């Protein structure tokens, strides 16, 4: 069966002497891998048509029962050239795409994931953002994957936590808890951090956070990703350093 879709190139590696495998996040079919036969050859039709973090229109022969499909045609829709020259933007893009890649098995993906990554890459390619950009992406990714806690209500008794003090985070269960439910587990979450976490669910990046709040948000998002999404802590540390250096 031949299928056509828009797809983001997450990862690519050589296969045999002349071919490459490209791992994509496709708009309709989720995460998939395609074999680009002969793409390492000098006169390959794939030459210049695909690179990391491109959005492409791909035409592929879907092999049922197999995880590796065959790429027939590929045309770039957005190449995001900034990533070839701006190493800081490229490092942040690598982290964002890599995090999604590690968190997602092959197969269908939640509907919002393609647009989340495409928007994130577009923004990074236009201008290198401040450090709050990354935890916001992480929190939105967790939400798309159904792994983000409800920041407004206790995960156990459903008590309203808006405006309440003493909320606690149970990272292992991915739940925010009221003081009573979280008394014997979890770590305290400050009211300022909770407010920032809620603001980060919105469409626009919140104003710069005080350093103390930023650190708390970064630790919370990192804890959730480590427990629930196979985070690579070293890649994350590098990406945060790179954005902080600006
Ligand atoms: Zn409770």
Spans where pLDDT lies below 50 across 5 or more residues: none
Broad CATH class of the largest domain: Mainly Alpha
Q: State the share of residues found in helices, binned by percent.
A: 25-40%
Q: Kindly, what is the distance between the CA atoms of the first and last residues, rounded to a whole number of angstroms?
A: 47 Å
Strand content: 15-25%
- What is the N-to-C order of secondary-structure elements (H for helix, E for strand)? EEEEEHHHHEEEHHH
Shape field:
elongated
Radius of gyration computed on alpha carbons: 20 Å
The CATH architecture designation of the largest domain is: Up-down Bundle
Question: Could you say how many structural domains there are in total?
Answer: 2
- Find the count of extended strands (DSSP E, 2+ residues): 8
Q: Helices and strands: which structural class?
A: alpha+beta
What's the CATH topology label of the largest domain? de novo design (two linked rop proteins)
Number of helices: 7
Bound chemical compounds: zinc ion
User: Looking across the biggest beta sheet, what order are the strands in?
Assistant: 1-2-3-5-4
Structural features, described:
- The chain has 246 residues and is of the alpha+beta class.
- The chain folds into 2 domains: 2-79, OB fold (Dihydrolipoamide Acetyltransferase, E2P) (Beta Barrel), CATH 2.40.50; 83-244, de novo design (two linked rop proteins) (Up-down Bundle).
- It is 35% helix and 22% strand.
- It has 7 helices and 8 strands; from the N terminus they run βββββααααβββααα.
- The chain has helices at residues 82-85, 87-103, 113-126, 133-144, 191-199, 211-228, 233-244, and strands at 2-15, 19-26, 30-36, 55-61, 68-78, 168-170, 175-177, 187-188.
- The strands form 2 sheets. It has a 5-stranded mixed beta barrel. A 3-stranded antiparallel beta sheet has the order 7-6-8, with no helix packed on it.
- Strand 6 and strand 7 (175-177) form a beta hairpin.
- 37% of the residues are buried.
- The structure holds zinc ion.
């Amino acid at each position: 069966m031949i299928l056509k879709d828009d797809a983001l190139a997450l990862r690519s590696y050589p296969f045999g002497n002349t071919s490459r495998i490209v791992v994509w996040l496709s708009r309709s079919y989720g995460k998939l891998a395609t074999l680009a036969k002969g793409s390492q050859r000098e006169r390959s039709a794939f030459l210049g048509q695909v690179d990391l973090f491109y959005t492409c229109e791909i035409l592929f022969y879907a092999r049922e029962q197999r995880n590796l499909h065959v790429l027939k045609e590929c045309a770039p829709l957005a190449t995001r050239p900034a990533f070839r020259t701006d190493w800081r933007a490229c490092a942040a893009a690598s982290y964002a795409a890599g995090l999604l890649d590690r968190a997602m098995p092959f197969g269908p993906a939640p509907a919002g994931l393609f647009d989340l990554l495409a928007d994130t890459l577009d923004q990074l390619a236009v201008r290198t953002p401040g450090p709050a950009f990354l935890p916001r992406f992480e929190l939105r990714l967790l939400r798309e994957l159904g792994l983000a806690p409800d920041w407004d209500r206790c995960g156990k008794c459903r008590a309203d936590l808006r405006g309440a003090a003493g909320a606690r985070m149970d990272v292992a269960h991915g739940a925010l808890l009221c003081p009573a439910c979280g008394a014997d587990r979890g770590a305290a979450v400050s009211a300022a951090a909770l407010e920032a976490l809620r603001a980060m669910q919105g469409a626009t990046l919140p104003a710069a956070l005080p350093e103390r709040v930023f650190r708390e948000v970064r630790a919370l998002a990192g804890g959730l990703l480590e427990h629930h999404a196979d985070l690579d802590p070293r890649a994350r540390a590098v990406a945060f350093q790179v954005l902080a250096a600006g």
